[in-house]
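Task 17 of the worksheet. Students: predict the tertiary structure of the chain below and write it out as structure tokens. Keep your answer in the requested format; marks are given for formatting as well as content.
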Amino acid sequence: MNSVAFGWSRIDREGQFTLQGDEYRLPAAAGDITPQSIVADAADQQIQPQLMVYALDGNGELTKVLSDSSLRQKSIEGITAAVAEHGFGGVVLDFEGLGFKLDAAEQQKLLNAYVKQLKSSLPQDTALSLAVPPLNSAYKGYDYKTLASIADDLIIMAYQYNPVGTKSQVPEPNSLVDQAIQLAIQAGVPKNKLLLGISLSSETPSSVDDKLGLAKRYDLKGAAFWRLGLFRSYNTKMEDAVNASVIKE
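Model answer:
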């Protein structure tokens, strides 16, 4: 891996940035092992450590933050402070659910403005990535072209196509993943700013090779895996399959 995003923060249901949430939080220290030492260890191995910031618009809470200048500023100050305090080299925004219930064009404008403000607030050498739903999903609140012009890259979360309740390790349809990549490129995102998101829980060692093959076919920047803890959940063959296909650059 060239980088790893630590899922330690979120914007909560009250619109507040936090590192102490129930689902996404800083891990407790275990002796000499602290959040800072984990981040530093990744950096020492030339793996850029990034802070993932998760937010959901399930009840309009993300829209509330994006629409309120005070909440926007407060969350951005929280993110930049966390980056500085813990030594992160980048930020990954995983802002989900936009454009499902509310006007998609307005949601796009709100997100574009937030990302631009965050980018200008981060130290100049801090990377900024966005994990975005695919354009062939129900979530239309993402202006791929503008977001790509601001951020360093976009991660297409090209999964969850299978019906709710589908058991694990049922591969995502290659045709829809292929379509998601094509739509992103047609929207104006440079290939060298696109990462194909792959959910390991819905792939097999054989099918993950298919997905990586699509990333190679379109000459994308690379692939991003959700998530690291799943590599060995089933067996070591998944890790072997990825190692056989991926080259760190």
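Marker's comment: The mean pLDDT is 95. The CA atoms of residues 101 and 139 lie 9 Å apart.
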